[in-house]
Amino acid sequence: MNEKLTYYVGGHSFALEYTNEILSEKELLSYAPFRTDSSYDEDKLFTLSLIDDPKALDTKGPVSADLVDENGRMILFKEEDGSLTIYVTAISGFLCCRIRISKDYRSAKAWIGGTPSERRYALDTALMLLYTFASSKLDTLLVHASAIEYEGKGYLFLGKSGTGKSTHSRLWIENIPETKLLNDDNPIIRIIDGKAFVYGSPWSGKTNCYRNHRIPIGGLVRLRQAPFNKIHPLSGIMAYATLLPSCSCMKWDHDMAEAIHSTISKVISRIPIYALDCLPNPEAAILCKEELTTNHMVGTHGSCVRKS
């Protein structure tokens, strides 16, 4: 049976087409809170169609990029017609996804396979890639971060893998009443009518937190492990350099890179950006909360140190 579902994520809609033989509802549980009945194709960012023949997506193009991270590997090929073919390999080494994306990023076909976890990784990767590419010129950033909600505002914690983003969010939740997790891996930032907002998404890493929710951003914090707790504001190029590495982007695509640059510039001019050197203890979360919620003017904060 053919299915076509529409989802509304970060203020943008997209469609997923598949058959029950290819995909089950169980593999779409994280997307359920974002499902919508809207059927206006012209308003959609993109449509992804799942197919059952991987050979239909064999590539003849040259390699444009070969990317490896802790989750797996992606090899991107540029086809003669301007489309992209991407091969996704899971951490197990299994080639779990092939995807062909149109030149305008509005449509794509993909094959996914492997174990349930590999198929889930393949589907998430395909949809996140399409979302990033298609929304890049719409003041939208898919960000690698952990995001919490406190007193009606969103706070995002950035940093390299292993720096304690999820731990810091948990410390807020455990020690600062009324704190709730918004997303633990890939929240979405958007500029709307000159204001910066953060959204939950279906992509929350290993944490089952899939909230279809939007709130104004109260601040961004770059985390770094240290033997003490110290927080200080960032501005200008340092604020830009803090946010850029956390943003999903095809940096070798000039137009996309320029659009991402423009959005980052808007974000850092509208919200406070901090660097937090910290221990994984409650005092770090409390110090961060006090600074973020006491000072609101971008680039005017002082530095606050608390040794623990």
Rounded radius of gyration (Å): 20 Å
Number of strands: 19
CA(first)-CA(last) distance: 60 Å
Strand content: 35-45%
Detail the poorly predicted runs.
297-303
Would you list the SSEs in sequence order as H and E?
EEEEEEEEEHEEEHEEEEEHHEHE
Quaternary structure classification: single chain
The rough form would be described as globular
Mean pLDDT: 92
Question: Which class do the helix and strand fractions yield?
Answer: alpha+beta
Per-chain topology:
Elements: E1 2-9, E2 12-19, E3 35-36, E4 44-50, E5 63-69, E6 72-78, E7 84-90, E8 95-101, E9 107-112, H1 116-135, E10 140-142, E11 146-150, E12 153-158, H2 165-175, E13 180-183, E14 188-192, E15 195-199, E16 214-225, E17 229-234, H3 236-243, H4 254-268, E18 273-278, H5 282-294, E19 304-306
Parallel strand pairs: 2-4, 4-9, 12-16, 16-18
Antiparallel strand pairs: 1-2, 1-3, 5-6, 6-7, 7-8, 8-9, 10-14, 11-12, 11-13, 14-15, 15-16, 17-18, 17-19
Structural commentary:
The protein has 308 residues and is an alpha+beta fold. The chain is built from 5 helices and 19 strands. The protein has helices spanning 116-135, 165-175, 236-243, 254-268, 282-294, and strands at 2-9, 12-19, 35-36, 44-50, 63-69, 72-78, 84-90, 95-101, 107-112, 140-142, 146-150, 153-158, 180-183, 188-192, 195-199, 214-225, 229-234, 273-278, 304-306. Strands 10, 11, 12, 13, 14, 15, 16, 17, 18 and 19 form a 10-stranded mixed β-sheet that branches. Helix 2 (165-175) crosses helix 5. The longest helix is centred in the middle third of the chain and has 20 residues, at 116-135. The chain starts with a strand and ends with a strand. The model is unreliable at 297-303 (pLDDT under 50).
